[in-house]
Amino acid sequence: MNNHVYVSRSKAIAARALGEETMVMSAADSTLFTLNEMASLIWEAADGATPLEEIVTKRICAQFEIAPEVAMKDAEKLVEDLAGHGILLLSGQPLAASRGETAGSSRETS
Amino acid sequence: MSSLAVEMVAKALKLNIPLSVQLDLTYRCNERCIHCYLDHDDHGEMTTAEIKNLLDQMAAAGVFYLTISGGEIMMRRDFFEILEYARALMFCVKLKTNGVLIRQREAERLHALGVESVQISIYSHRPEVHDEITKMPGSLRQSIDAVRLLRAQGLRVTLANVLMVQNAGDYPGVKALAVELDAKFIMDPTVTPMMDGDRSILKLNVDHAALQQVFRNQEMVGNVEEFCAPPQGPDEETLDMLPCSAGHTACYVSPYGDVYPCVQFPLPTGNVRRQKFLDIWRDSPQFQEVRSITLRDMPSCSKCTHGATCTRCPGLAYMEGNMRGPSSQDCEKSYARTGIPSENYKARHASPQPVSTLKLVQIQGLQRSEFIGDRIPS
């Protein structure tokens, strides 16, 4: 994956912040995910207009002591995983943002 | 419930977050079910704007699971406007309906809006029984049509069956119907009082023998031996357990804005027309009292041999006059399940006492109770 990736939250999900974590449920199969604090920051910033690299730099590296390349690698893996479950949308171009709440991640099918 | 969901509930409990809310949009209904606890007249339902404002507040408060119920939810002309607003706020929305007003267009919209699941009340697989309970000719056919339309859209559907005298032998037929329709099935063996305290509809409850039959049906309960095992009595750990999620991580809001611990626990705690939802949730003395009660605080149940395993509903206990007291209907179920009567059951049957009738301030409704999980609207 290159760094010019735009991420947007899917409309076909339910989500809510719970403390520093975020609960996310896929409407497609009712799979429940929890996103940890770092993943939640990416989720909240996934507006479809901000490149992932910028999100990682401004939201993750600015708050956590983590090497940018490590953070970026983790972020890429996370968004690909969530995109695989239809929770995030990925594109090489800016995406229209979907209205909604804020999304590591554990998952379970209920 | 999955272990992750259990973990989330535990976290919500710790953070005092109302994770689950049932919101009844209306008590109006196009059916007139004989066991219904509702007053179907409109006594001043919240407006569209009031409901949207409430949804904003609930999202900010951390509500994740939003069950939209009634009455019949589609009696509100603004139903889809409200649903669309709720989904834009990313609630996990579950619907309870009789399905009578669901056609192709409605099914498509429900799917497009990402509804998590739809629960439809089916009282019998036989039209003459179902329609006699709903007092609406043709209602079974229309409800089944709705299930088919929703399933064709890929929506998850649950058939909810309330057990009563009129349909006591039909639950296996409804379960088979659920299999045929590729839907889930839940059954509730308890008809509960009307929310205004009127207990006359309790005469519709099935008798002890019928309850026993249900509880010994492997298809219904799984491992019968385990399900019907003699109770061990509460130990020190279970004495500190909380009764249920009502008021702890869940609550109910009526069409008039009244907030209760649960649809089946009509203890007035506040009204969102006069107070902020979160202020009621956090600060109402009634919620705080409900949260303070553990099994240890219940004089009768803490000493009962069924204390650790009873399905005691605090709402039903409240409606009997004491939220720290036993729920006699659950005592009946514990007895039918295990063959061992509770002290309350023995006392009541030795010298039957009239159950005090609550005269509640607000005109409200109540939905059916527990057993295999969910509450079933009538």
List its traits.
heterodimer, A: 110 residues, alpha+beta, Outer Surface Protein A, domain 3, 4-stranded antiparallel beta sheet, 3-stranded antiparallel beta sheet, B: 378 residues, alpha/beta, 9-stranded mixed beta sheet, 16 helices, 9 strands, 37% helix, 12% strand, disordered C terminus
> What sort of overall outline of chain A do the alpha carbons produce when their principal axes are compared?
globular
Radius of gyration of chain B using CA atoms only? 20 Å
Largest pleated sheet of chain B: 9 strands, mixed
Percent strand of chain A equals: 25-35%
The overall average pLDDT of chain B, rounded, is: 91
Percent strand of chain B: 5-15%
Q: How is the CATH topology of chain A named? A: Outer Surface Protein A, domain 3
What Rg of chain A, in angstroms, do the CA atoms define? 13 Å
Helix content of chain A: 25-40%
Poorly predicted segments of chain B: 358-378
Low-confidence stretches of chain A: 98-103
Instruction: Determine the number of helices of chain A (DSSP H or I, runs of at least 4 residues).
Output: 3
CATH C-level class of chain A is Alpha Beta
The order of strands across the largest sheet of chain B is 6-5-4-3-2-1-7-8-9
Oligomeric state of this protein: heterodimer
Helix segment tally of chain B? 16
Task: Describe what is shown at a glance.
The complex is a heterodimer of chains A (110) and B (378). By secondary structure, chain A is of the alpha+beta class.
